[in-house]
């Protein structure tokens, strides 16, 4: 077609073609509804107006909904090199101006294959194609828009590698690495790692066995971008422990012998550990990392629906593990994948910013099997012959999901490691706030907890109920069955550290599950208890029981705690978690004959002369901090809920996790300042006699409707604890309401009701028998929630499967005793 004809063809669409500006998000690497990309068979279509990307299956939907006709089609081809072409270099790009922000597959055998990129304009609905570049024939605006789109940075990539053809250079340390190894920055002689790019020897931090180090190996990676390192002392003729800083996990390096030979190290001669002792002189330490990941065992890869891995985006394994467990539950499968057509059809114009769309996309990616296909028989033969293989585009990269679900959250939006339990609650909060259909899938986790508080002096009691989603099980360290071994190990460990000898074989505390369950059911002291019977502070004890049993019971082992120096630490214990669990004996019984209730009198409100001197219950702060929440957020939660206890403060945290200043230090307003938080803390009445918004948010976060929360607070003079009691004692609250108030709520709080379908009778629960069967668990490796790695094990089709980011394999030895979060399903009666 002539240049003039192309110009005339595009004239009707020129008003809809935009040039990306600074701040525009250009999605040229991933479909908004699927995990299709330019690498996919159908390529990716990028709208020239919205800059959203769509796979071949979803482009028609966007065209019908928006009427946008002009798209840039991006396709990456992997082609076999012409015989005789130079090999050994990293993949080259034939079209240097295209796809500047796409990742190169680490699976590609660069000796035999290379990339060939293609771009063209496509005009709908006739699918008319215009190949690029076509500068002379296209209007200037179209050419500028195409160039800007092709050169735009992906919303997820922070930086682009400077070179794609860098080769490894021999390190100046190659001849001296065998003897006298030490960290080049701190002289540490243990937990050393050799960088396979430049040969630097640096200390690790928390890798594998959690041994000490100053993190210089990681710092070196951040400075240089050199990704692979091998742990010194693990190199043998059979292999070595290799770690990828870029992928944040141990990896297999099939060319490790060649890489080490590059520095003059012969694997066949490496028989000495880093401390100068031969391997057969000491027993190998079976680290938590190796046991949980089932290292040393040849695991069979699993493919197909439900066996799709997830890429680690850099400390995102906590998200991967939780989402694998979530989408193994039928209720979540039905809610999102079952409703996928409806969710996609009614998604907003920008589906990348819609929670339900992104949940349905992730669920479909994990369950469809589209991104988990076994290699063809011919490819398997090729792998065996060459010990190489063509790139397998298996697994999904949850970049879009993580970017949306963590938006505005100070912790999850970072690249730091996080607590999987905290993320689970964050996810449930978002599910509650974004109803999909008539049944909310998070209902399967919700249960009621009955708390019995007794005044030790008057012996009178108070029964209250609260909503929860996780059963937190304490670790009964005093019940360890191998105390003598633990004491002997600790003595040997200290001696070895002082003498710089290899550490002895690890001895892990063995805790009976029954002891942990007993510790959960025992009474606990209530700090700063105010007795309404005595109208004074007194000693009090509290006991928790299940007022209802959930359909799915999530059990968290409280392994994370704080030392005397307030440094987070983890209890390395082994607990014999049962496959079948019966907690029927923990069913709540309510007020018993002979028990006398505490009077319904609220403690007096004392406003100090200097509000900054207001005491904060540090014991409640510690309880929350041990759950993995930021310390400052815990202090704010306890303060803003008036020191009413860790449970009430916990609900405040759930309601405020998404706020930008969630983890910022507590700033207590001066007396008289207008601050909703301060008003909530002191129980003051809000503007126009409305309850404080902070208290309303706390009750909403427990699963109640907004109008019910306001009604309860008004009826109890904004006393939070009494308001909760009022809700449970009024199953049929008044239905009449102030029309003016309803109008204001609709205008100012359109999204405040996180449970759109919650009945006025209270939170939705799925009560039933308390007998359960284990179907999954999430394990953590590392010394604290701020470091380490998460792995998920799920029982599917009669066998256990390990989900370790992208690797999905049949499990041979599921480490059920080392888990952190366990998932149980109710056994039908």
UniProtKB/TrEMBL annotation:
Q: Which reaction does it catalyse?
A: Thiol-dependent hydrolysis of ester, thioester, amide, peptide and isopeptide bonds formed by the C-terminal Gly of ubiquitin (a 76-residue protein attached to proteins as an intracellular targeting signal)
> One Pfam family this chain carries?
zf-UBP
Q: Is Protease included in the keywords of this UniProt record? A: yes
* Amino-acid positions noted as binding Zn(2+) in the UniProt annotation, renumbered to this chain: 183, 186, 203, 216
Q: Where is the UBA domain?
A: 615-656, 690-730
One GO MF term attached to the UniProt entry: zinc ion binding
Q: What EC number(s) does its UniProt record assign?
A: 3.4.19.12
- InterPro entries to which the protein is assigned, alphabetical: Papain-like_cys_pep_sf, Peptidase_C19_UCH, Ub_carboxyl-term_hydrolase, UBA, UBA-like_sf, Ubiquitinyl_hydrolase, UBP13_Znf-UBP_var, USP
Positions annotated as active site in the UniProt record: 317 (nucleophile), 789 (proton acceptor)
Q: Which UniProt keywords apply?
A: Autophagy, Cytoplasm, Hydrolase, Isopeptide bond, Metal-binding, Phosphoprotein, Protease, Repeat, Thiol protease, Ubl conjugation, Ubl conjugation pathway, Zinc, Zinc-finger
Q: Which residues form the USP domain?
A: 308-827
Localization of this protein: Cytoplasm
Q: Which GO terms describe its cellular component?
A: cytoplasm
A biological process (GO) annotation for this entry? protein deubiquitination
All copies of the UBP-type domain together span 158-267
* Domain of life the protein comes from: Eukaryota
> How does the record describe its quaternary structure?
Interacts with UFD1. Interacts (via UBA domains) with SIAH2 (when ubiquitinated). Interacts with BAG6; the interaction is direct and may mediate UBL4A deubiquitination. Interacts (via UBA 2 domain) with AMFR; the interaction is direct. Interacts with UBL4A; may be indirect via BAG6. Interacts with NEDD4.
Q: Which family does it belong to?
A: Belongs to the peptidase C19 family.
Q: Which PANTHER family does the protein's record reference?
A: UBIQUITIN CARBOXYL-TERMINAL HYDROLASE, UBIQUITIN CARBOXYL-TERMINAL HYDROLASE 13
Name this protein carries in UniProt: Ubiquitin carboxyl-terminal hydrolase
